[in-house]
Amino acid sequence: MGVDVRRSTVAGVRPHADLTFYLGSHHSAWLAFADVPLFISHRRLAARRNLPRAATAWALDSGGFTELDTCGRWRVTETSYLHSIARYHHEIGRLRWCAPQDWMCEPRILARTGLTVRDHQRRTVDSVLSLRTAHPPVPVIPVLQGWTIADYLRCAELYETAGIDLRAEPIVGVGSVCRRQATREIETLVTALGPDGLGLRLHGFGVSLAGSRRYGRSLASADSLAWSYAARRQRNPLNGCRHRSCQNCYRFARAFYDRAASALRQAATASVQPALFSMPDPSVAVRATGSAVADRLAG
Ligand SMILES: [Zn+2]
């Protein structure tokens, strides 16, 4: 039996009622005053001697893409990462979840590490298991890594074999998508994994406005730093801003947040459009994998 991605679809109803958009920021100081959830990288916090006390909920990115892209391996040890998670929990507070020390599967990153997609998947699952064994004070979320839909399903199978029931997880990250997110391929993938497919509560890493509109329906949460690139391209600051550029500007980022959160909300509450299923049927791709986990996850 394969997974019928349409089995849980009810027109006009979406399972994720508590959708959260996390505003990505390079500025950890924003934690002290932001009025919306933030997504901050470990790379931005680790070196800080004094940490801000959070005025808002936030989630921690492990900074894996930059780490692997620049070093070809994780230089941050697991012990050090665990120590930091505990420190952020106690000193900053309001940390909802942390990404594992995951291994992205973009060809560029595979070229840097010299490893295979399967190697990266195994190492990602191992990181989740190992970090959880230490019982950190904040949940470490499982992240699915891969390149094709079959890869992602195989990664789901690895988690299941390891004893992690992804459908019972409050949040499951979808990795290696943020640099190709506004594509039909990723829309198909996210649809196959989300509430209309396997039924996972997905976090989309680095989801643009276009991505939110395309497949926001299948997400439980998302983050984006896209405002930063937009601010750098914009010649003039916002009305009322005194700096030359809004590339470090909370007002600019906050305005982006409103648009991004609104796009996600609209996608979440939109009825299922016929166009969603005019694309190649993800269930066919899922069945084609012959994946045992797909059958089990289908219940
Ligand atoms: Zn500004």
Main CATH class: Alpha Beta
What's the total helix number? Answer: 12
Work out the strand percent. 5-15%
CATH topology, which one?
TIM Barrel
Query: What's the number of extended β-strand segments?
Result: 8
Helix- and strand-based class? Answer: alpha/beta
Uncertain parts: 1-15, 273-299
User: What is the total number of structural domains?
Assistant: 1
Summarize the amount of helix as a percent range.
Answer: 40-55%
CATH-scheme architecture:
Alpha-Beta Barrel
Strand order of the largest sheet: 4-3-2-1-8-7-6-5
Radius of gyration: 19 Å
Quick one: overall form?
Answer: globular
Distance between the termini: 10 Å
Question: From N to C, what is the helix and strand string?
Answer: EEHEHHEHHEHEHEHEHHHH
Secondary-structure blueprint of this entry?
Blueprint: E1 20-25, E2 38-41, H1 42-45, E3 58-61, H2 64-71, H3 78-92, E4 95-98, H4 107-113, H5 117-133, E5 143-144, H6 149-161, E6 172-174, H7 184-193, E7 202-204, H8 209-215, E8 219-224, H9 226-233, H10 250-269, H11 282-289, H12 292-297
Parallel strand pairs: 1-2, 1-8, 2-3, 3-4, 5-6, 6-7, 7-8
Helix pairs in contact: 2-4, 5-6, 8-10, 9-10
The structure holds zinc ion.
Zinc ion binds at residues 237-238, 241, 243, 246, 249, 251-252.
